[in-house]
Amino acid sequence: MTKIKKKFTAAQKKARKKAKAERQKKYMWVFMSGKQVRVKRPETIDGMDKDEFIRRNADPIWLHQNEMREHMDVENEVEKNEIENENDKDECPF
User: Fold this and answer.
1) Sign of the Cα pseudo-torsion (15, 16, 20, 23, in order)
2) Strand partners, 48
3) Do the Cβ atoms of 42 and 53 come closer than 8 Å?
4) What whole-number distance in Å separates Cα of residue 54 and Cα of residue 74?
5) What digits encode the pLDDT tens for the residues 4-51?
6) Which residues contact 22 (CB under 8 A, 6 or more apart)?
7) Each residue of 59-88: pLDDT tens digit?
8) Are 37 and 30 in contact (CB under 8 A)?
9) What's the sign of the alpha-carbon dihedral 74, 75, 81, 85?
10) Rounded CA separation 31/9 (Å)
11) How far apart are CA 67 and CA 65, in angstroms?
């Protein structure tokens, strides 16, 4: 005698679908040694890798304090400061 398959209720289907969506957000599939393996996804902020986000949005002081000097763009900062100084000279301080 074979078992009769039970149909899932709407609530159970919804719960399974939600759990699947959570797993897909948390993990991704990659091939390692010819086998498919599930690994955690890299952390992202606003759809960017966290390191890329830091490089784009961190100020030089924060980068220096966290020993990320290789990401500091000194030449652009100098140019920005020169432009700001030129703008300050044009304006009357009084």
Assistant:
1) positive
2) 45
3) no
4) 16
5) 889 999 999 999 999 999 999 999 999 999 999 999 988 888 888 888
6) none
7) 888 888 888 777 776 655 566 666 666 666
8) yes
9) positive
10) 35
11) 6
What's the CA gap between 29 and 17, in Å, rounded?
18
- Asked whether the beta carbons of 26 and 41 are under 8 A apart, the reply is yes
Sign of the alpha-carbon torsion through 69, 70, 72, 73? positive
Residue type, 36: Q
Token pair belonging to 60:
């030089």
- What is the predicted pLDDT for the residue at 20? 95
Q: Whole-angstrom Cα distance, residue 60 to residue 68? A: 9
CA distance 30 to 36: 6
Q: Measuring CA to CA, how many Å separate 59 from each of 12, 13, 86? A: 49, 48, 21
